[in-house]
Records
---
Amino acid sequence: MALQLRNEVADHLTGLYQRTPVGEDIWVRPDDTTSLRDFQIVAAAAEALERLGRIKIIETHQADLRLIDGIHIRRLK
C-alpha cells in the first residue's frame, strides 16, 4: 500500500477526532471512499491514539472476515 494512501486513510480518523469535542463519543466507520481493508489502517491509528492518551476505544465491531468495520471512541484530549 502506498504511503500516500495510508496518510489519506489515517486522515479520516484525524478529521473525526478534531471535530469531536473532548469527552464526547463517536463511531468511526469506513466512508464511501475507504475499503474495509484500508479501514484497518484507521483501526491501527486509533490504537496508537489510545496509547498516546488522546482517545479511549470503547468498542470495536468486526465484519465477517474478522476485519474491524467500526470503532466507538471517546475523545480524552
Note: The longest strand covers residues 55-62.
---
Amino acid sequence: MLLQDTDILLLDEPLQHLDLRHQAQAMRLLAGRASAGRAVLAALHEPGHAARHCGFAVLLYDAGRASLGRSSDMLTQANLEALYQCRLEPAGAQSFLPS
C-alpha cells in the first residue's frame, strides 16, 4: 500500500526487513506503478529483484562512479563482482525469488 499517488516514487531499500511474500507484493505494486507511467526509482541491494522487475539499473560504485543501462546488460556477474568487490558464483536452481 502506498499512502500517496505521486508521479515519482523515490524509495530507499523498500524491501528491507520484508519476508519473501511481502517483497513480491511490494515489487508487483511498484512494477504496476511503473507500467501505469509513474517514475519509480528504488535503491535495491538484491540483484535478483532488480533483474526481474526493473527495466534499467544504475550501479553506484565507490568514489562517485556510476554505470547506467538496461538491467539485462548491467546485472552481469562481472559487473556485480566489480560492484560488490567479491567473487560471485551462479546459484543455479538453488536460488529462489518469490513470484
Note: Residues 51 and 75 are 7 Å apart (CA to CA).
---
Amino acid sequence: MFGFKTLMDSASAASRWVSSRRNVVNPKAEPKTPQVVRRIPRKQFDAVMGGAKAAMRELTEFAAQAKSRLREDRPIKQDDLLELLRKLTAAQKRIDAEMESDVAKSADTGDTEWDRRSYNLFALPTSRMANSPQAIVDGTLAASNNGAKDVKLLYELTVAEMDVAVARFNVTLSLITGEGRPDL
C-alpha cells in the first residue's frame, strides 16, 4: 500500500509540519517548557514500521476470513474463536521474529528524532499497530475472563477489534501522507 521510503519521508515532513504549526496562533509565543526530543534508533523504528505494515496486512486478511465465516449458516463455536485467536498469536510471533531479525541485520547506527507531538501522532501508533494482534487476543481473553460467555459475541468483538486497529493505523498514515492533516 505505502512504500517504506515514502512513509519515512512523509513522517519526516509531518514532523516538520507539526513543528512549524506550533506557533501559528501566537507566533511570538515561546514554549513554556523545553522541547523534549525522543531519539529512537533508526533500525528499531524501521523494524517497528515493517511490523506495523505486516500487522496491517495480516489483520485485514484475518478480518475478511472471519467475516466470511460469520456469513456462513452454521453457528460460531468455541473452536472457531480459538482458531482465530491462534492465528492472531501466530501472526504476532511472526511479526516479532521479523522485527528482531530486521534489527539484527541492520547496520544503520542513526537515530530518528521525535518531539512529543510527532511521537504521539506517528511513532506511538506505529508501535501499537505492530503489537495489535497480541493486544486483540488479550482484549478478547479479558472479556471472556470478565464474564462474557457468548462465543459469537466474542468472535464478533475480535473481528471488530481487528477492523478498528486497521482503521486507526490508516488514520495515522493519512496524517503522515498529508491526506488528512489536522488543523492544529
Note: Residues 120 and 168 are 13 Å apart (CA to CA).
---
Amino acid sequence: MQLTTNTRAFIESEIYSDFVLTNLHDGLLPESFYRNVSDFGVGETLHIKTIGTVTLQEAAEDTPLIYNPIETGEITFAITEYVGDAWYVTDDLREEGTDIDRLLAERASEGTRALQEKFETDFLKTGALIYSATNGPFNINGFPHKIVSAETNNVFSLSHLIAMRIAFDKANVPAEGRIAIVDPIVEGTINKLVTITHDVTPFGQNILENGFARGNRFIMNLYGWSIITSNRLYVHAAAQTDGTTSLAGGVMNMFMCIADDQTKPIMGAWRRMPKSEGERNKDRARDEHVMRARYGFGVQRMDTMGTVVTSATNY
C-alpha cells in the first residue's frame, strides 16, 4: 500500500521514544558536614549551653584565690524551614500517555532532588548570613575570618587559602577536617595558575587533565584545605566589606572544620523527615501526590568557620 503524506504523518505521530530526558544535577555535599541534632526533644527551639574561657590568677602563699562563677552562655537553634511539593496525574494522561510509570518515578525523583538542593542551599546560607549581616573582618584572636578579595577583579587567590589557614591556626582549630567549599569560578581561577608553555609537574598535570575539582568530591589538598566546588554558595547582592575592601554581588566561599560534632560550625535537624502521601481525587479524576518536610539550621560556633568573598563572574 502506498502511504500518502497525511497517512505517514499520522503513523509517525503515534510513535513515542522510550527515552525520558531528565535534568542535569551536580553532586551533593555529605550530611556529615553539619552536626545533626535531630534527636532534641519537643518544640521548635533548642537551647545549648556554652562555657566561657578560663583566666588563671597569680597565686601566693597564705593568699586566697578569688572564686569566680562559671562563665556560661547560650546559643539557640530553631526549626525555620517548612517546604513541600505537590503534583497530580490525570486519568486522561494514564489512558493516552506512554511510559507513565517511568514518568511518575522520574517526577518523584526530581521532587526529592529539589528538596535536597534546597536543604544544602540553606546549610551554606546559614553560615554566610552571619558574615553578610555585619561588616568587618570578624577577627578571632586578632586574625580575620572574613576576607573580601582585594585582588584584581576581586578574583580568588592562593594567598586567601594561606590567610584562612593562619586564622584557623590562631583560633586553635584542629588541622584535621578542614574543608573549603568554593564556587566553580574559583576553580577556574586556580586552574589558570597552571600553564602548558613550560615543563609541567605531576601536580600541574593532574590539574590540566582533570581540573581542580569534580562535582563535590575531594580531589586534592592545598595548604591543609580539602577543596570542594558547589553551585549553591550564597551570593550577597549588597556590598560587603571586611574593613578594607568592599564587594557587591560577591559569592561567599565557605571554610569550615568538620572534624567532629564539637568543631562543626553549623548544626541542623529534621523535625519532619520528607514524607510522601498520595490519594485519589475522584471529583477531578486524578491521583494526587504531596510531600512535606520541616528542618532548620543554626550556627553553633564561629571560630571554626570563615568566608572569602570573591567575584561571582571573574576568574
Note: DSSP finds six helices and 15 strands in the chain.
